[in-house]
């Protein structure tokens, strides 16, 4: 398992932001999912509540967004309104 966010392939700015938010080490789901998504793979991840699943898919999406490009660059689907609200707040 990866012990630091710097080892996941994230840009330095994202790693710094994650660190500023108080997160030091990635969770197992983050260690597994982030590198795969950065390589362009489609993934399905399953983990308990509170294990960092949202960050596991949002950080790679943030890294691949192209500044200044209009139009949809990412689509996030959630199976329930409650979960959609949680993801939107994250």
From TrEMBL:
Start and end residues of each Helicase ATP-binding domain: 34-90
Limits of the DEAD-box RNA helicase Q domain: 3-31
Key words, A-Z: ATP-binding, Helicase, Hydrolase, Nucleotide-binding
Recorded GO MF terms: ATP binding; hydrolase activity; nucleic acid binding; RNA helicase activity
Listed GO CC annotations: cytosol
Pfam families in UniProt: DEAD
Keyword Nucleotide-binding belongs to the record: yes
InterPro entries recorded: DEAD/DEAH_box_helicase_dom, DEAD_box_RNA_helicase, Helicase_ATP-bd, P-loop_NTPase, RNA_helicase_DEAD_Q_motif
SUPFAM superfamilies cross-referenced by the UniProt entry: P-loop containing nucleoside triphosphate hydrolases (SSF52540)
Coiled-coil residue windows: none
Record bears the keyword Hydrolase: yes
This protein's name: DEAD-box RNA helicase Q domain-containing protein
Organism, scientific name: marine sediment metagenome
């Amino acid at each position: 398992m990866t012990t630091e966010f710097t080892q996941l392939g994230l840009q330095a700015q994202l790693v710094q932001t994650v660190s500023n938010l108080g997160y030091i080490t990635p969770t197992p789901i983050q260690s597994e999912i982030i590198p795969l998504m950065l390589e362009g793979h489609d993934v399905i991840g399953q983990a308990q509540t509170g294990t960092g699943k949202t960050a596991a898919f949002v950080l790679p999406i943030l890294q691949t967004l192209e500044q200044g490009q209009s139009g949809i660059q990412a689509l996030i689907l959630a199976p329930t309104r409650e979960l959609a609200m949680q993801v939107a707040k994250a």
